[in-house]
User: Fold these one by one.
Assistant:
Number 1:
Amino acid sequence: MDKRNTPYLSRSARYELSEDIGRNHSEAPTLGDVISARLGRRSLMRGTLAATAIGALTPPAALLTAGAAKAAVGSFGFKEIEAGVDEDHHVAEGYSADVLIRWGDPVVAGAPAFDPEAQTADAQEMQFGYNNDFVGYVPLPRGSATPDHGLLVVNHEYTNAELMFPGLADAEGNYEIDALTREQVEIEMAAHGLSVVEVRRGTDGKWSVVPDSTYNRRITARSTRMRISGPAAGHPRLQTNADPTGTTVIGTFNNCAGGITPWGTILTAEENFHGYFRGELTEDMPEYRNYKRLGVGAGEYAWANYHVRFDLAKEPNEPNRFGWMVEVNPYDPNSTPVKRTALGRFKHEGAGMIVNADGRLVAYMGDDERFDYLYKYVSKGRVDLQNPEANASILDDGTLYVARFEESGKVTWLPLVHGEGPLTAENGFESQADVLIETRRAADLLKATPMDRPEEVEPNPRTGKVYVMLTNNTRRSADQVDGPNPRAENAFGHIIEITPDNGDHAAETSGWEVLVKCGDPSDPAHGALWNPAVSENGWFGSPDNCAIDNQGRLWITTDGNNYAYSGRTDGVWAMETEGELRGTSKLFYRVPVGAEMCGPAFTPDDETLFVAVQHPADGGEEWPEFGRPSTYDDPSTRWPDFDPNMPVRPSVVAITKNGGGVIGS
Ligand code: FEO
Ligand code: CA
Ligand code: CA
Ligand code: CA
């Protein structure tokens, strides 16, 4: 094993770096090729206008003076909070933000109490995992719309060893990856995956986890056996010594966002799976081209030291068994999670699903890396909402499409089907399984549009529009600017609104336009685009997750919020998408220092918003009041316990309106 001395970089900073590599060398047209006559030029112009804070937005009604726009009535009644940074979280006046469950809290019946100084893998297997990201609420009983009793399904994306293990990191925050013991590696593996917990809202309006519920479950990278289904299941490229059938695999990891299927199961997204595999990637390896496009090989975890399957030299096919969407049935704690290969293999951010008018399932999905693509999956069969069991093949049999944005304001959805166009044996695709295993390379050949890191994508069932979060891409050069990615060195990201033709999500074309270009509207250098009515606290950067409440209103959470510029933590913003205020947003909630805001999820009555506070205290040196790297022993905040004997803990928070009522009313 290579012994590397790891200069201090938090795990999230490492992911940022990894995403900065920009592995897509596709020659698909970018700017110059696709200078969008319709929106590219107009967007550039808008950027200039935004600089003087009179930016124009469609619809033209938004062309108002700031004063007039402020007088317009928005759909959110709460009083905006002030953006900033400190050790705690903050929610709008009149609301409560209560910590529901924290890293280490018991999940499964019989779980021991959290003892961070004497943590074990077996304990962690029964306790709430690290770095909660996606949160999904499904009601109990199944198929109901119960707003105060249900199951929460939570992803645990990754681990911050420097914040989890006493004494591991030195005062500079440094530690050697290979210094992790076998037990620490096992704890990390057990802290990845998902938790399912039964939750209930009491007569006092407060939420709690139902202890020892038979629904409560941990799914981990360490122990949970999963089935592989769909066109790539059983393919020789998925076979290993441990699984010569290529149909079963232990674990899921780096589960970022996800989605709830119309029949009440969860899709969880395997995102930066490449970071767990180590070993030299050499050109003579059969999977060289595949792994190079995904960055496999330069792993940042020590798992390979104790599990040969994470060592490329020993199990060269193991990485092909990750990077999928995984279906989990939270209603059956004994169910086997299923990796659904028909949805493609890439750095899956999540899945925003909708039942099309004709009954087919459509799932919109982002591949979160600079210059990667936007996808959608359309099922062959129709969803049966009465009988959940009848939907077993919906996610196995369908067509995966990748988006090409045209300068005319049109999206063309290109089918990734073996034998069509360049997806032939000549290009290394012998079957549909090959197309799915190497989805990115197939999409390169179809000349899909390289995007500024597509994160969560959500269809709005009320309006039929689809919202795409594009978090940022500082590597886009001026000659790569195009309509859908309208800024060079795009540090702040933007949001695209897609309108399916005739409301048909399965159609092979849609329309698109830019909703907002993020950044500070008062700084001309940002070229930001907001409705001029946006307040000083209302703008943000680096949109990541989003949710649409049951009234069809859009809520956005950020990853980083460009802290180095803004000095503001991540949070939840309520975004107007209709009427005169379209393109304004308001800050509703913000996280403690170092944290990322994930997992927004509403109950069916919109009276509770669950959010996931991920990696609080991560970093540390960039906050002047702390000014040094955060470690387990010396974190920038000890949120949420503020107990000197407790480490900082990622946690899920339930936000409710005091005295009851709809969130944001
Ligand atoms: Fe895990 Fe793309 O954020
Ligand atoms: Ca994250
Ligand atoms: Ca994300
Ligand atoms: Ca992100």
Number 2:
Amino acid sequence: MIIRKSRAEIEKMRSAGRIVAQVLAKLSYMVEPGVTTRYLDTEAERMIRDAGAIPTFKGYRGYPASICTSVNDEVVHGIPGERQLREGDIIGIDCGATYQGYVGDSAVTVAVGRVSEEVTRLMDATRRSLYAAIEKCRIGNRLGDVCNAVQAYVEPLGYSIVQNFCGHGIGRAMHEDPQVPNYGEPGKGKALRTGWVLAIEPMVNLGRHDVKILPDGWTVITLDGRPSAHFEHTVAITENGPQILTSFDDAPYDGTAGGVIKSGTQFSRLS
Ligand code: MF3
Ligand code: CO
């Protein structure tokens, strides 16, 4: 069952989302060689709690931290620890905050210092594919249009879509219906309705699509060991088009896929 949100609920979700966006922005500036993923987690938890929110991930199905930190061939759900970031790494940082009972969920992939052209292009394509999907979040479209947008953007570039994990509806719970895969057929699936809020999260591999879960029960890695990128926004579908809720200013989505969008996602190290 897809739970539609009222305008008032969407405003609460915007407040939760703004906290997440601010935390991700600050974390992205802390990313540099030598920093441990645990340090980022500790700072994230402090910032979330200082904002009066709760780290949604912590304790979720036993997950031990407030953010996920997924380095290089780690796709998603990497657990923060003593690993030190190194020049040339990329790190996906995924963060959730619950504020006044509503959840915001967002992720960015950040370069550690200088990274290769090849990996820079992967990150850039993944971020742009997210905006391509957001652009489809309009009344008159179907879920398949949103899902297909990611695939249609990245596959012609030679990248692979991770199929085992997907985006999701979001509200009072982090995971609500519907599931939002990063592939699908245009024109198929449920018609989009106002009040739907979706967490759209492309996970894109430089090599093959196959992934596996490490014995820690969480960390997803690529089978071929090649890098993977992940970006995520919480997006409301309104009569006026898509609204990115995980944003730290109140600028409306301007439709510039991958271009300059005042959404809190354009961090200095991303491109
Ligand atoms: N954005 C991720 C998701 O939607 C983060 C969840 S991590 C978890 O599944 F630890 F909380 F599960
Ligand atoms: Co999510």
Number 3:
Amino acid sequence: MTALNPAALGTVRHDWTLAQVQALLELPLLDLLLHAQRVHREHHAPNTVQMSTLLSVKTGACPEDCAYCSQSVRYETGLERESLMEVAAVRESAARAKAAGATRFCMGAAYRSPKAKDLKVIAAMIREVRALGMETCATLGMLTPEQARELKDAGLDYYNHNLDTSPEFYGEIITTRTYQDRLDTLDAVRAANLKVCCGGILGLGESPSDRAGLLLTLANLPEHPESVPINQLVKIEGTPLADSAPLDPFEFVRAIAVARLLMPRSYVRLSAGRQGMSDELQALCFMAGANSIFYGERLLTTGNPDVERDRRLFERLGLKPEAGAAETDGAAAGHACAHPRAHAETAA
Ligand code: SAM
Ligand code: DTB
Ligand code: SF4
């Protein structure tokens, strides 16, 4: 098929070409939104948004040189470092997130890759969060297949590891680990039977063809990530990308819509950058097929819209949060619940 045959959009494929992805990105915006919304409704409950809350469980002093990041030891960003948190404090934070309405709790650590002793503590955090009846996610840098299995055994549901940008542009952003390193970690995560959360960042100074290259690489992975976070660069003073040119907001919306078309069954997360977006722009992103957000006042080290603003936004748009595994009877928003053990553990 050609990518522009609208009737053929919405099937799960792994053989996209760059030309097809570029053609989708260049469609008239309203056509693109129409296709994306149609495909969205074929695969997902309409008007329903999954909500994850982030917590940085180990902050700063990271040896990597990711040019966008507040936590790299190489840039003077004024960030206060924090060593690995206590398990009890993480549990309390997760309980607060659950009470506010989040169904998934994502623990982030500024590691190149976790050390064995730290992984044991993080495994304990995962057990505690899961015992609250929440889905668990972690993002800890590169993993070996054994480490991925250890996290799975602790009850981890998702592992977040982003490709960030296209293979061609990647070297401009990170030099301390390769694109292949990232693909290897994703393989290790899949081999451990964990769900994959993998996406990228827009607004790094990449070209439209790099945005197509990122989306193409994600869509042609052997299996689509269950969750695809699309981040807009949060500009951090002191990093090489502090003065990046702003991205045309419609280019961001287009990328969300094309992610929806290329990976019809995946959750597409409108991720970092929401704090700087108008309510209208966020509404366009939901129209384009975004059905997940980071929820709560903080991302990892930067701000996010406060809970009250998000509640008002959901009310004005008629959106509802996706029910958590613990609140449904085996189905979330009309879809089979992927976490039967969560029910077993929280029933009664
Ligand atoms: N250190 C681990 C790693 O890089 O794999 C995990 C944490 S890292 C902060 C997780 C992801 O957050 C990055 O891959 C990147 O996509 C995103 N991110 C980090 N800083 C960002 C920023 N300033 N703006 C937008 N996204 C950002
Ligand atoms: C993802 O794709 N975005 C989140 C999460 N995965 C870990 C992180 C966004 C970080 C934004 C900058 C900060 O708060 O430090
Ligand atoms: Fe370290 Fe992750 Fe930040 Fe890169 S993105 S500097 S690996 S914390």
